[in-house]
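Budget justification note: compute hours in this period were largely spent on complex prediction jobs such as the one shown. Inputs:
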Amino acid sequence: MFALVDCNNFYVSCERAFNPQLQDKAIVVLSNNDGCVVARSPEVKALGIGMGVPLFKIREEVKKYNILTFSSNYALYGDLSNRVMKILGSFTPEVEIYSIDEAFLGLSGFKDIDLTTYTMEIRQTIMQWTGIPVSIGIASTKTLAKIANRVAKKSPSGLFDLSICPDQDSVLQKIDISDVWGIGRKLSNWMKEQNIHNALQLRDTDIPIIRKKMGVVGERLVRELRGESCLPLEICPSPKKETCVSRSFGKVVTDLTELKEAVAHFTTKASAKLRKQQQCASALTVFIRTSRYASSPWGDTATLALPVATNDTPELIYYAMRLTNRLFLPDVPYKKAGVIMQGLIPQSTVQSSLFDTKDRYKSLRLMEVVDQINDRFGEGTIKFAVEGIKQEWKMKNENRSPSYTTRADQLPVAWCH
DNA sequence: TCTGGGGTCCTAGGACCC
DNA sequence: TCTGGGGTCCTAGGACCC
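Corresponding output:
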């Protein structure tokens, strides 16, 4: 038995947790660069504003209905997410953190416990300790728990147990095929052509038909809908295989120096991420591209296998700069760039090279000090000169709330009259 | 004018090995 | 004309997730 715990409109709930005046107000949280809507309060959903809509397309509604817009504040969301997950861990050791706002729980050890009462207690505890409302769906497979959670979201209790539901078929029938976990845009179009319009119809489709189109992934999906668990709980997160830092620019970039500043900056962030994960990269890719929405979008990538796997910032910047030089073309309106660290291996098992001349121990210690300073005093307190000073390519973040829980100088203030 | 970022998994096909 | 069998590794591309 599985439960899926999902935070209700998570980013919006985080903003509300530290600013109670936002309760019952129509608010949205925007993606990086203040580009698209990535979280909506129920009031905004009721206005028919969709997920992922670009902000400039809803300017009128924002004005008309006084919708408050927030730039995303990942320091805050990440910290509150950790707190929620920690609370879940105090209820059961079988927790799979699936995303920033979702976790699967394994309930196999709770045979003699009333699950409704227990999950209600989980829900109340999270609410009381963090201020974040969650919904919980229970079922015999992860895919069904996802569906149960959709039902829970609409129920006043915030809970739904599909396994004790007398009429499962009618629940599945009400789930549109595009809302089934693992069915995206392409596949839902195909399904509809095959006359499969809801979860019930997919469940009752012959497996070979689905297997032929979707491979083993599809077969697992149908079996999961039939109540046969194929996707196990993954309690220990497996180490990352690659890690990427990329951003759209706040403006168009045509200058090589400026482009290199940005790539150097992304490389710095990616290197710090590697060190935090105690991993080294054995290859490095840089990509630069124009706007996706240009009449003829263009982009290019370049990859380099590193002589010795590393997470040393200056070394990685050196290679990233060489790749950027190779990629750059004059007079192209670049809008986005990124670096991808690939072939990640544990820092402790790096194969050294006979011809390596670098003092890796020394530079690792230097990086440790840099990381400590930046952790303590804020990102970018110490930076590399190639990252630039003005950083005019940096993205827009016009309406970011304070980092209430992670920066001492931004703690929330309570008034008392 | 303005359109996010960071991932994973699977498959097919090519190169290569003995 | 007929041209083996069994395998690994890598990459690109397509699909999906939140």
